[in-house]
Amino acid sequence: QSALTQPASVSGSPGQSITISCTGTSSDVGGYNYVSWYQQHPGKAPKLMIYEVSNRPSGVSNRFSGSKSGNTASLTISGLQAEDEADYYCSSYTSSSTLGVVFGGGTKLTVL
Amino acid sequence: QVTLKESGPVLVKPTETLTLTCTVSGFSLSNARMGVSWIRQPPGKALEWLAHIFSNDEKSYSTSLKSRLTISKDTSKSQVVLTMTNMDPVDTATYYCARIVAGTLQPDYWGQGTLVTVSS
């Protein structure tokens, strides 16, 4: 399975909003509403932030939101805070070659 | 409270077989709505899905690694085991197990990960 495409890095100042894109194909992002987003701080395991495109797990700040249009999913973080600085990964159900999961290449968010 | 914990060797030699165990609690491996995936992350690189297994023993493997992977479970011990044959230095990574949701296959809870180094 080919990885989903994410920008390598994004940055923003505290209080601003940023959006991270995740582009796939009709066999993954575009074909199913099974896209998740994970936050990973250095040396830590990934943490689920968004599931099924736009749903937040209990305990995740409402500053995090997700959406999808065609083959591209997006994560938006509003009101940036220093603690948001981390790597972010998208993932999607995929039906290409084998039923499984495909991840994005990851995006490093820097809070200036 | 859902928890997963990986265990296995820290260091393996090239050509050896890696065996990792994921011990879960807070949910049952007999739950039809839940499964377990193995995912790895080489140092400084992205996440890579490896394999998953469900209660009915349904399994799926990454196409690129399928010939080297075997996933199995022992429901009575709440354990999922992954074996990877013919280890190579490029397989050096942190290996995570994660609970996944049937239908979506998306991980929701992750273990802390275990770093496996392949070196002679």
Automatic annotation (TrEMBL), chain A:
Subunit structure: Immunoglobulins are composed of two identical heavy chains and two identical light chains; disulfide-linked.
InterPro entries on file: Ig-like_dom, Ig-like_dom_sf, Ig-like_fold, Ig_sub, Ig_V-set, IgV_Light_Chain
Protein name: IG c967_light_IGLV2-14_IGLJ2
Organism: Homo sapiens (Human)
Residue intervals passing through the bilayer: none
Biological process (GO), any one: adaptive immune response
One Gene Ontology cellular component annotation held by this UniProt entry: extracellular region
Xref: Pfam families: V-set (PF07686)
